[in-house]
Design goal:
Layout (H helix, E strand, L loop, with lengths): L1 H14 L2 E5 L5 H14 L4 E8 L16 E6 L5 H14 L8 H23 L1 H9 L4 E5 L4 H8 L5 E5 L5 H4 L24 H32 L6 H6 L3 E4 L15 E3 L13 H8 L5 E5 L11 H12 L5 E5 L11 E4 L4 H6 L3 E6 L3 H10 L3 E3 L5 H12 L2 E3 L7 H13 L1 H15 L5 H14 L11 H4 L2 H41 L1
Parallel strand pairs: 1-2, 1-4, 2-3, 4-5, 5-6, 6-7, 8-9, 8-11, 9-10, 11-12, 12-13
Helix pairs in contact: 3-4, 4-8, 11-15, 13-16
């Protein structure tokens, strides 16, 4: 019996691989995704977290399941000023209507790119950091979509294989480098506020957004390339390194996102590692269970800083709570100066899933981040969206498209509008039914997200393959190399035919006129 157990242990060691995970430290929400990947991969593999510390505010972030996990860290910025300056610009967009093409948006992008380029330069200048990655002898490394510099880092550290990990829906700007087709006439851009059924003007705007997004992505890649070219001679094209990723894991579901053409290497692992356990404790449990009122969770996400929320919004929230005394509200917010009615409890941090899964929770008022959207589906709770920034607008439209919630524009953020739309979401049973139906579809998939992650990762470690289609430039993609000559030849032939017909007609008319003239004479 003992030798058999030893053989099983040896077999499991042989079968497991060594996996590195580059996590994004820009915000807690992105770190959540990275650590959830680690927790799942630890079931079968040795895992090491590679953590470029970009945001000092997220240094202490971790999860219980990865407490003893080995981490390779590098300090990029030891003060928060650079990041705070960027977040201040970002917060300005949260609470007003804006265009993604306006100057302030371009300034924010410029500041972000500058910060990421300097972070990349610092990683490349730290030989100990690069050697520590190389010494791990990874079989494969996961690269978060937020920082493309890490593809170059993996190449320098001689990592044999990479996998792209996207913590949001498909990012067309990035996946198009892999050859993924995403026609703007069909698929709303990730930074748009359109649904699939676009009008002609919306399709035009979506086309412009897609082109602008692609150009921005191309410029960003080119700027990374310049960083590497300054450090190394004859460094490979960063786009080739990106395209070389064996697989693309996307935090999404086929039954949630819009129907679309998909690339062979894209694997949907939506909700990966989401912990649906746990129960309410202490004052939250007392607040919810010692009342006859149902509960609504209110949160504008982890990126939204309470100190930047306008007074108008705070006042409208309070008025909204006061106008709905028959509902208890759990509000993720921080402002000790606000006078709240008795049906509200305010917390800096909330166990969101535990609140949503409680039987007395009837709705979620959210900024519509993609993690929150997925949590409402897993818990079967309808959602009321107040999208604030970038992909949240598309997420809100997707919620309406799938029928498990509604959305309110920032320009309509008033207590009366919130009350009206919340009551619609609560009282119309179709929203709850749609959320429950989506949950059933997700839970009924032939393979769950954990199985897909583990099986495909094992497949990538054990096999050498390439699922990337050949690169097609605009000329070949639209077949312009033969359609233009064919069109030209067609025009020449058509012109010849028309000229011949005209001459025949002219000749026949002249002949008839000549004969008529002879008859008259």
């Amino acid at each position: 019996m003992v030798p058999y157990i030893i053989l099983l242990l040896l077999f499991s060691v042989v079968e497991s691989g060594k996996v590195g995970i580059f996590v994004s430290t820009f915000s807690n929400s992105q770190l959540v995704f990275g650590f959830r990947l680690a927790e799942e991969l630890l079931k079968e593999h040795e895992v090491v977290i590679i953590r470029p510390e970009l945001n000092p505010k997220t240094k202490e972030f971790g999860t219980p399941g990865t407490k003893n996990l080995k981490q390779i860290r590098i300090e990029l910025f030891n003060d928060t000023k650079r990041l705070d300056d960027l977040l201040k610009i970002q917060q300005d967009f949260f609470f007003r209507e804006f265009s993604v093409l306006e100057k302030n948006m371009r300034d924010m992008r410029s500041n972000f790119v500058s910060m990421m380029d300097k972070a990349c330069d610092r990683m490349l200048s730290d030989e100990n950091f690069l050697k520590s990655i190389e010494k791990e002898n990874f079989d494969v490394v996961f690269v978060h979509h937020y920082d493309l510099c890490l593809y170059g880092i993996a190449h320098i550290a001689k990592v044999p294989k990479t996998i792209l990990a996207i913590s949001s829906p498909v990012l067309e700007t990035l996946t198009r480098i892999h050859g993924h087709l995403s026609p703007p006439s069909l698929i709303p851009s990730v930074i748009s506020n359109f649904s699939m059924d676009m009008t002609i003007s919306e399709r035009f705007k979506n086309f412009v957004l897609s082109v602008a997004q692609d150009y921005s992505g191309y410029s960003h890649v080119r700027e990374y390339q310049q960083v590497f070219d300054r450090k190394f001679k004859n460094f490979p094209d960063i786009r080739d390194l990106i395209r070389g990723a064996k697989l693309i894991f996307v935090n999404d579901f086929e039954v949630l996102d819009y129907p679309r053409p998909i690339l062979s290497k894209i694997i949907n692992i939506g909700g990966i590692g989401m912990n649906l356990g746990g129960h309410l404790e202490s004052d939250l449990k007392t607040f919810v269970e010692n009342s006859k009122n149902p509960t609504v969770l209110v949160s504008l996400g982890t990126v939204t800083d309470s100190k930047y929320v306008p007074e108008k919004w705070k006042n409208e929230f309070v008025k909204f709570f006061e106008e709905n005394p028959e509902i208890n509200f759990i509000w993720k917010f921080e402002d000790e100066h606000l006078k709240l009615p008795k049906n509200v409890i305010m917390k800096k941090w909330i166990p969101q899933v535990a609140v949503l899964k409680h039987e007395k929770t009837i709705a979620f008022l959210s900024h519509c981040g993609y993690n929150g959207v997925q949590e409402t589906i897993f818990t079967g709770v309808p959602i009321l969206c107040v999208p604030l920034f970038v992909d949240q607008f598309r997420n809100a439209k997707l919620v309406e498209y799938r029928g498990f919630g509604k959305s309110i524009a920032k320009s309509s953020f008033y207590s009366a509008s919130l009350t009206k739309e919340l009551k619609e979401v609560i009282q119309n049973s179709s929203y709850k039914e749609s959320a429950l139906n989506l949950r059933k579809l997700i839970n009924s998939r032939p393979f769950n997200s954990s199985e897909l992650l583990l099986r495909w990762t094992k497949f990538a470690i054990e096999n050498d393959f390439d699922l990337t289609p050949p690169y097609l430039d605009v000329i070949r993609f639209y077949n312009l190399d033969f359609l233009i000559p064919l069109g030209f030849i067609s025009l020449v032939v058509l012109s010849f035919i028309l000229r011949t017909i005209f001459r025949l007609y002219y000749w026949s008319c002249c002949t008839m006129a000549f004969k008529d003239k002879q008859k008259l004479q």
